[in-house]
Amino acid sequence: MLIELKQIANARSGDKGPSSNVGILFKNKEIYQWAKRNITVELIKNHFKSIAKGEIIRYELDNIFALNFILGDSLGGGGSETLINDAQGKTHGQAMLLLKLDVPNHLI
Predict the structure, then answer these.
(1) What is the per-residue pLDDT across 29-54, written as a single tens digit (0 to 9) for each?
(2) Phi-psi map region of 68: left, alpha, beta (phi>0 left; psi -120 to 50 alpha)
(3) Largest CB tally within 10 Å, which of 2, 23, 46, 57?
(4) Which residues have a Cβ under 8 Å from the Cβ of 57 and sit 6 or more positions away?
């Protein structure tokens, strides 16, 4: 079933210099295991292609059923450069939750 990520997860994000950090916390272990196989760096790079100009790095946090992504060069110089580009990493978590995914029905 095609859904938005927000139906199976929560997110938290922030500024990290010229990059942003987006953590995704999944509702249970079964959904997390599916996400580890399906929410790839390539998928996230495509989702943020107009924002993230640098490398995307993914970290797995098995103990809390979470994935953490660093979106390289996604703030156009840094979150404090708001007069130039109004970039704020705190908005990237909400943008991540709009990611559309084809998730097996039994996980929803």
Answers:
(1) 999 999 999 999 999 999 999 999 99
(2) beta
(3) 23
(4) 41, 69, 70, 72
Query: For the chain, first and last CA: distance in Å?
Result: 9
Model confidence at 87, in pLDDT bands (50, 70, 90)? low
Pair 105, 7: CB distance under 8 Å? no
Query: CB-hemisphere CA count at 13 Å for 13?
Result: 24
Residue 23's contacts (CB-CB under 8 Å, 6 or more residues apart) are 11, 12, 13, 61, 66, 67, 68, 69, 93
In single-letter form, the type of residue at position 92 comes to H
